Every structure is written in C-alpha cells, then in structure tokens.
Amino acid sequence: MTGKFTSRRAFLSTTSIVGTIGVAGCLGGSEGGEFPNENIRIIVPYGSGTNTDADARAFAPELEDELGVSVSVENLEGAGGLRGLGELYSADDGHDVGFGYVPSNPISALTNPPGWDFGEIGGVGSYSHYAVSIIANPDYGIESVEDLFSRYSNGDLEQVGGLSLGHTWHVIAMLLRENNGFDWDSWVNYGGSGEIVRAVTADEVPVALVSEDNVIPAHEEGDVDYICCLGSSGTELTPSDVPTWVDDAGNESIDYMSMVSSVVFAPPNATDEQQSTLEDAFRSVVESDAWAEYSEDRQQIISWSNGSTVASNVQKVMNDLPDRVDLDNIGE
C-alpha cells in the first residue's frame, strides 16, 4: 500500500531526492479561473505539536512557492481525526486539503461511523510510511512468528500490548487472531509508542505491536526482540536479521493494514484537474532537497504514492476489513 520504496537493506539517503520541479505552468482550471485562485487551507485533524501538524507546517511554505498562493494550517482535532476530515468532506473544492493516515482514518470511520461516507474523500497522495512490528521481551526466547503464535495457542502467553482499543495496531492484532492463529486473550492499552517499548522491556507485557521506527533503538541495544516486520518486504529501516511477514515468513500480504501511510486527502467536490494540480505540487515538495533534509532530521521515510493509490487503499480498508475482522466486537 505504500507505493514505491527502496529495498529494506538500503539507507534513507538512497531515496533519490531530485530537485524541485515547478508546476506554475500547468495549473488545472476551475470555475472561477485558473486554480488555485484563492488561498489553500490545510486541515490537520489532530492537535498542534503532533507529527501530522509538524508535517503540514513544513509543507505550507514550500507549497506557497509551488502554487503562488498563501497556504494556512488549521487544527481541527477530535473523533480520531474524523472531526477535521468531516469538515474537509463538506469543502467546496480543492482549495481545502486534509492530512491524515491510511488505514487509521478509515478504521475510525468503520468503528465509529461519522454520518458521512469516508470512501468519497479523494486522495492527493501519500508522502511517507511506517511499518507495524511485533516485538517481544528477550527473556522469552521467541525464535520466530510460528514460535510466537504457538506460545499463545498453547496458553503460555495471553497478553499483547499496544495503543487503545480500535487503534490500527489493535485491529491488526484482531486480524491476525481471526485469520492467522495469533490467539491472544487480552489487549493492554498504553499511551504511546515509547511507553509500549518500555513495557515490553520491563516485561509488563510479553509481546506488543508498535511502529517500527520506535523499535529500532531498543532492538539494537538488545532490550527487545524484533520478531517480525508486518510489511511484506520490510522498509528501509528493517534490520537485515528481522524476518518480514511475506518475503520471509511466507504469509499473505496485509500491507493495506500494516504499512501505515501519511496521506493528503482531497474533498469529494475537488475536480480531477484540481487534484492533479495539488498532486503535482505536493510531489514536487516531497522530491525536493528541503523535504529530504526535513525528513532526515525526523527519521521519516520518504515515499510518494499518487492520489489514485490513496483512494484505492482507502477503499480496500473500507470494503475488505469488515469481512475479515468482527469490528462489532472491537472492545472484546
């Protein structure tokens, strides 16, 4: 679901960043004239100071140069991102865009229906991704995914840690329980990725799901065992000694769930020409030296996927996930 990205054996510096490509000469038209003909608003459906907020505010001045209009950022947090994206849903045209995550925001819409059709939101593109990982306390000596699952099947282990019920990592754990034999009994909530890693290190929980970028330092220090990267082929960050869900463990791909993408959404009322213009502008920023420097400082993987790929991935979550996971029992 992540579009193109380099081998997991590669370093971040190999994400061949090219110079900025101007789009001023190919702006799509709109009813009021050449688009954009007014300022662009970026809706961030999370609070100020979050990673999404930081990304939006880093994009804004670069987009101003690309599009020739002012770009503002507005935080509208609440309802797992659905409050802000609900406002985007009602926007008049492509002068409003929204930031978010796939599959996280579609999952929120499935588990807490917002009263509008999330599947109608369009995609501008996705600019980064991370993989979800399974980690374990080293004292258990878990040797493989098969060994891990067998510990739960025979009752040796029961608990799994992660973020809140209904969060992407929890839903992935449910998916693995219902389709792959990961027979965990109870889910333990934690407030953040760092807290999850510390809980596994301290053996508060034997196993947890967490984003890969938060695992690497503890894995390198030997504080946790990195059991599996749930991305099919891993990422640029995945250590060479860590098995991947498809290439190494031989399972069916769950990338539409396990590879979480940072996404720019467009409102349903945006025209194809407006989405194309926005896509060109965002991609130009993502492929610039300035964005490479920003992402390196944040240890953020750069990977561009176009708007149609974003829309396809949203539809896959909305259409396929309910057939594979009983979302009505999300709290059980």
Task: Explain what this protein looks like in three dimensions.
With 332 residues, the protein is an alpha/beta fold. It folds into 2 domains: 171 residues, D-Maltodextrin-Binding Protein, domain 2 (3-Layer(aba) Sandwich); 126 residues, 3-Layer(aba) Sandwich (D-Maltodextrin-Binding Protein, domain 2), CATH 3.40.190. Strands 3, 4, 5, 6, 9, 10, 11 and 12 form an 8-stranded mixed beta sheet that branches. Strands 1-2 form a two-stranded antiparallel ribbon. It has a two-stranded parallel ribbon with strand order 7-8. Helix 1 crosses helix 9. The longest helix is centred in the last third of the chain and has 18 residues.
Rg calculated over all Cα atoms: 20 Å
Major sheet characteristics: 8 strands, mixed
Morphology:
globular
CATH class of the largest domain: Alpha Beta
Number of separate helices: 11
For the structure shown, list the relevant keywords.
332 residues, alpha/beta, D-Maltodextrin-Binding Protein, domain 2, 8-stranded mixed sheet, two-stranded antiparallel sheet
Task: Please write out the topology.
Blueprint (H helix, E strand, L loop, with lengths): L28 E2 L2 E2 L5 E5 L6 H17 L3 E5 L6 H8 L6 E7 L1 H8 L10 E15 L8 H9 L5 E4 L5 H13 L5 E4 L3 H9 L5 E5 H9 L4 E5 L25 H4 E8 L5 H15 L2 H10 L3 E5 H18 L8
Helix pairs in contact: 1-9
